[in-house]
Amino acid sequence: MPRLPRVVLATVSVLLAARAFAQAPAAEPQIQDNSFLIEEAYNQTPGVVQTIQTFSRMSGSGDWIYTLTQEWPVPGETHQLSVTIPVQGVTTDAGRARGLGDVALNYRYQLVGNGDARVAVSPRLTLLVPSGDRKRSLGAGGLGIQVSLPLSLVLSDHLVTHWNAGATLEPAATDASGETASLTTWNAGQSVVWLVHPRFNLLLETVVTSIQAFTDRGGTERHTDVLVSPGARLAFNLPDNLQIVVGLASPIGVVANRGQNSLFLYFSVELPFWHPAP
Question: Terminus-to-terminus CA distance in the chain, angstroms?
Fold first, then answer.
């Protein structure tokens, strides 16, 4: 079959599937807390723990990162604790390196709203633990602090947007050669989520990151990366309030990282571990 008819057929198939989802009854709860690159401003509800796994692989270099995150309400929706454990494979001057990265310990406060509100805000404070081997370029070599401000805004019954702004400080980062410097990273991002169906969403995420990093010739320099990432996510609602969400995205570099693209896979499980009193 010629290439153009194949593209047309694929496009029509996606639109028909989206229309079928949109015509289905919307009695089920919407997917929440499952964006890929952008943080949604909804803490975990009481009695529910969420376990998230992601995998991303860059084209060209073949660098990859896998993360395991678990989020807990403590004990209600106002306060949330979570941990993110990364395992990664990177390209270095000495070849390929694989291993544990820097672990993130997170606290998030539900300042405004919740998953049922039109506006939600939940500031996050993160401690980055230098668990990765900096000699193999797997970690920063020192403690880091990160702050983030996620904002979620419901525009309509089928359209939600999320906004992020944040910064990371590594006051005593150390590179593979032992050079030490104070590094800062700034980030901002925005996403639009089309709620095609309570169990099926389409996403378009944009992330801008200003990164200060070590150079091969000594010292540090700053560069800015911009990613635009189309994606989709699908939920399976099972008995006992068990929800499984799978997702797929393709982040694409459009500025300094122009032409770079990656494959992003997402898998999460939300499982009640106790039922709060009515």
Answer: 59
Cα distance between residue 128 and residue 130, in whole Å: 6
CATH number, span 3-272: 2.40.160.40
| Placement of tokens 């990366």 in the chain | 225
| Contacts for 15 with CB less than 8 Å, ≥ 6 apart | none
For residue 198, whether the previous peptide bond is cis, meaning omega lies within 30 degrees of 0, is: no
CA torsion through residues 187, 100, 173, 217, sign: negative
Residue 250 corresponds to which amino acid? Answer: S
Q: Are 99 and 138 in contact (CB under 8 A)?
A: yes
The residues spanned by each domain of the chain are 3-272
69 DSSP 8-state letter: E
Residue 73 exposed, middle or buried by CB count within 10 Å (0-12, 13-18, 19+):
buried
pLDDT tens for the chain, 278 residues long, are: 443 344 344 444 444 444 444 444 445 667 877 789 999 999 999 999 999 999 999 887 789 999 999 999 998 999 999 999 999 999 877 778 999 999 999 999 999 999 889 999 999 999 999 999 988 989 999 999 999 999 999 999 999 999 999 999 999 998 888 889 999 999 999 999 999 998 999 999 999 999 998 887 778 899 999 999 999 999 999 988 889 999 999 999 887 666 678 899 999 999 887 765 55
Separation CA 206–CA 171 (nearest Å): 28
